[in-house]
Amino acid sequence: EEIFARCTSLLESKRGPHPKGRMRVLLEVTRALACLFSQRHSWQGLRLYLQTYQRNKQETVELVQKRQTAHLPKIKKAFTDKLMQTFPCLGLDSK
Question: What domain of life (predicted)?
């Protein structure tokens, strides 16, 4: 919760300039991961990942692969679970 709040504060700061480029994407994926780890925000975390990816695909993929490698199984499982919940007819394999 604290990491999510700090990243949000930095991204939406009214005091100084908003972070740009790689720093912005880093804050966005960090916030998404923090949100994903918080049980009550799990869908919001997935949405934050998707929004970041839509804005900057290459940078998002690079940062997630480099900085969130240890968490990729949890991220993948969260996306798979949400897809199965939304579209049970897909019958995705969880491997």
Answer: Eukaryota
Every domain of the chain and the residues it spans = 2-90
Q: At what angle do helices 72-86 and 57-67 cross, to 10 degrees?
A: 120
Distance CA 11, CA 35 (A): 15
pLDDT in tens, 47-79: 999 999 999 999 999 999 999 999 999 999 999
Tokens of 20: 């740009």
Provide the residue type at 5 as one letter: A
Whether the model pTM is above 0.70: yes
